[in-house]
Amino acid sequence: MPWIAISDYLWGPGASDMTPNFVYVIFGTMFVLFNSFAINMILQYKQVGKWRNYLFGESAYVFLSLTAKSLLAWLVFANVLIPQ
Questions:
Q1: pLDDT tens track for 19-64
Q2: Which of 5, 20, 52, 78 could join 47 via S-S bond, C-beta 3.0 to 4.6 A?
Q3: Pair 33, 60: CB distance under 8 Å
Q4: Which helix H or strand E contains 24, and what residues bound it?
Q5: Separation of alpha carbons 39 and 69, rounded Å
Q6: Residues with Cβ < 8 Å from 34, sequence gap 6 or more?
Q7: Can you give the residue ranges of every domain in the chain?
């Protein structure tokens, strides 16, 4: 539901033309990364390949979390420094 609400705000009726381009990049990147948690969950529950090992699936969660949150911080930080 939050992804639909944010999409509607960015592209729906009455969307502002003043939205900086980096907001769209952040939205797309976070959409892909946060939905990779669901892919990891499905692979872990179905015990596909390396996900048969519980620790591998949990390690993937830690890696995905660190990657997604670090990338978000860097995307925001980098675009605050760039003059618009």
A1: 888 888 889 998 999 899 999 999 999 999 999 999 999 999 999 9
A2: 52
A3: no
A4: helix 21-46
A5: 17
A6: 68
A7: 19-74
